Amino acid sequence: MSRIIYRHESADRCVVGTVGVPGERVFFLQVRSADGFNSIVLEKSQVQALMERLQLMIRELRRNKLAGSQELNAPAIKDDLSLEYPITEDFRAGVIAISYEQGDQNIELQIQALTENEYEELIDEDSNSEGEALPDLLLVKLSIPMVRGFIERASHVVAAGRTPCPFCGIPLNPEGHLC
Length: 179
Hints:
globular, 23% helix, 29% strand, seven-stranded mixed beta sheet
């Protein structure tokens, strides 16, 4: 089976949402553009790490004056609509990379599918591996205001889970807790 590369050069929508009850939620990243629509499954820890790295990237862009003040100071593009149904999983996320394109001032997300081989680094979209099936790849370009809206929503989605135990920090289950 050949590698599928999903490209979203200018995404209209890029959001995180969940399906299920706290403790059993499945996290989805949904991306829509003129190029199509994709739903990717992520772990909660991946959503949290992605959100934190994007915050750090925007901070560094501001500090090092790599992005224009108009982009950095524009209001966040918020998207509070629910996930689009029916949800069809394209793949589960494995390796995630983030980069910044200074020319068009876009942040690019590269999300590679999780595989049994568990690649530890992103395989470039131009890689040509003889006879080896490469994992699918999602490429998404987002404006800085869209990324800031993504961060806001992701922080609310992550925080909406189970409350942590005040003693050990592990999420409390409805049926009880070891502490």
